[in-house]
Design goal:
Length: 350
């Protein structure tokens, strides 16, 4: 069976990456692409790397244009997807790459986003631990999927094994992320101009204000419901001059009585059989260059006994495993297709 697909926000970074992956997917036909201010223009004018899709023209983003497809991807700015989702009630599968359907708490939504709260959808991070299983179990047969925030899924995957196994204390998590500016979208923002970011590193959303914090807390609480009330996280992102990528360094105190073998075994159990989340051998740590263009999260783990902390360093391509790759991987699971179809573990180098 070939599934018809519409992609909204197709002129942006997330929409363009979804299209790049789907263009190589044998089970889908990209039938419709939409935009707002760029509607009426050829897709190739905004995504010149997508040569196989040069025949497509950007249409207006309306419920009428998006309806009538088997699958709709919403790659819109936060707060804009919800206005379309109710009108797409007859669409068999809708995947939102924005934040509108990620959070379960109205209070957290009001605090970090504001505006209209929309019902939470199935979270699109298949490898994330949930109780005795993984989020993959919930994605099978899902009809509404919320793709993750790139920083949030990176940190959640980094720490969920330790929280679930009880080998780290979730009450003192500290994470610092080096991130590329593509995570902020394609619209013009003066502080993201090349002249502003080249040759410098710029922290932002410092002091607990980043919108991905409640998403991380929610994910870690799903991994270990009994630890939900204890989860506290200090989260500091830093923009660095690379177009793509996240390098997240996350630390947490070692739980009393946890041995070095206990700690490493927690991550090995969680990801030993996973294709797209890989724990590197002891003493090895990833670079963002190693995951460029790939749907992989590469992870290195260290145990700092002097500081009594576990250190996890994780690299992802924010536009692939962080967003579009996670969305397509989740789509494959929901439809009963091979999970890795159209996705790769191989990066691009140099």
């Amino acid at each position: 069976m070939t599934y018809s697909v519409a992609v909204s926000g197709a002129s942006g970074y997330a929409g363009g990456e979804i299209l790049r992956i789907l263009a190589a997917h044998p089970d889908v036909e990209i039938r419709t692409v939409t935009a707002h201010s760029n509607a009426g223009q050829k897709l190739i004018e905004h995504q010149p790397h997508l040569r196989s899709l040069a025949h497509l023209t950007l249409q207006e983003t309306t419920p009428e244009v998006l309806s009538g497809h088997d699958i709709v991807f919403l790659a819109l700015p936060h707060g804009q997807s919800g206005q379309y989702t109710e009108a797409l009630g007859d669409t068999p599968l809708v995947i939102d790459a924005g934040a509108d359907h990620r959070l379960e708490s109205v209070g957290e939504w009001d605090r970090f986003y504001g505006g209209v709260f929309h019902e939470p959808w199935t979270y699109g991070v298949p490898e994330l631990l949930v109780g005795a299983g993984t989020q993959r179990d919930r994605l099978r047969g899902a009809t509404r999927i919320a793709a993750p925030g790139c920083n949030a899924s990176t940190v959640s995957l980094s720490l969920a094994p330790g929280v679930a196994a009880g080998v780290i204390d979730p009450g003192d998590i500290v994470t610092v992320l080096a991130v590329g500016p593509s995570g902020a979208g394609k619209s013009l923002k003066p502080h993201l101009l090349g002249s502003e970011i080249l040759g410098t590193a710029n922290p932002y959303a410092v002091g607990g204000s980043h919108r991905h914090i409640p998403e991380i807390r929610q994910a870690l609480a799903a991994a270990a419901p009994g630890a939900a009330a204890a989860i506290r996280i200090s989260f500091t992102p830093v923009i660095v001059p690379m177009a793509r990528g996240i390098l997240a360094t996350s630390t947490a105190p070692i739980a009393p009585g946890a041995t070095d073998d206990d700690i490493r075994a927690a991550w090995e159990r969680a990801y030993g059989d996973e294709t797209f989340v890989q724990l590197l051998p002891s003493g090895h740590f990833p670079r963002t260059a190693d995951v460029l263009g790939a749907n992989t999260a590469l992870m290195g783990l260290a145990i700092d006994r002097d500081a009594n902390r576990v250190v996890v360093v994780t690299a992802v391509d924010n536009l692939v495993k962080g967003t579009a790759g996670a969305a397509v991987q989740s789509m494959n699971i929901a439809l009963g297709l091979p999970e890795g179809r159209a996705l790769t573990v191989n990066g691009v180098a140099p």
